[in-house]
Amino acid sequence: MLLDALTRDMRKTVIAGNWKMNKTPAEATALIEEIKPLVADAKCEVVACVPYVDLGIAIEATRDTNVKIGAQNCHWAENGAFTGEISAAMLKELGVDYVVIGHSERRQYFGETDETVNKRVKAALAAGLKVIVCVGELLWERECNITNEVIARQIKLDLWGIPATDMANVIIAYEPVWAIGTGKTATADQAEEVCEFIRMCLKGLYGLEVASSVTIQYGGSMNDQNAAELLAKTNVDGGLIGGASLVAEKFAAIVKAADASTASY
Ligand code: PGA
Prior knowledge:
Layout: E1 14-18, H1 25-39, E2 45-49, H2 55-62, E3 67-71, H3 88-94, E4 98-101, H4 104-109, H5 114-126, E5 130-135, H6 139-143, H7 147-158, E6 170-174, H8 188-206, H9 208-213, E7 216-219, H10 227-231, E8 238-241, H11 248-263
Parallel strand pairs: 1-2, 1-8, 2-3, 3-4, 4-5, 5-6, 6-7, 7-8
Helix pairs in contact: 1-2, 1-11, 7-8
This protein binds 2-phosphoglycolic acid.
């Protein structure tokens, strides 16, 4: 469309595992130990977003390696009477690098709205975390041909009030809700179409330079079999991987596919 394909080399390729509510601390240690050697020579950024209780051991286990650790959510308040919640500053002090905000499972099952996503993104950025903001349409919305409207609305609301200078620490993950955990992947063309649209939205909000530099991931049943095709697309700069990130070999294969996809840029 309007954005130059050559801008791909301005962006960091990021492969992030989203472990969701899987792996006890002992299991997490074992999986991290399996993953580490398999991705040790990765050129792309490798991230594992683990359950809160696994963060400490995951950070310890990945010290002096190229694997970065992320959380899967954080609260927007600095502290206070929010039983069961975790603040961005708590994550930062622990040594967490990334946090996923606005995952569709949080929107679907835990009442997350674009307003609360926006508040969490702001709090995470203020604490010095890198944020993976998730957007994506429901199957019903795609069938009604309003995917672009849904995505544009989420991007505008989720990033409301976030200055261009903070966008270096923001990744957008396009995760069509109908593709998450369903084994139903968006085709590479569908993924590219929406990722490119997201970049156009970012261009409208922040201008071409910022839009060209933001990493946009695809997520939704990405695996070792389909990653290469998805990651070959100009505007698909990485992946947010659920199920396949729990199997070290599959996750490492996706990392390798990402490296191969950027080798040509
Ligand atoms: P999936 O999950 O790869 O299991 O579909 C992706 C995600 O929810 O981030």
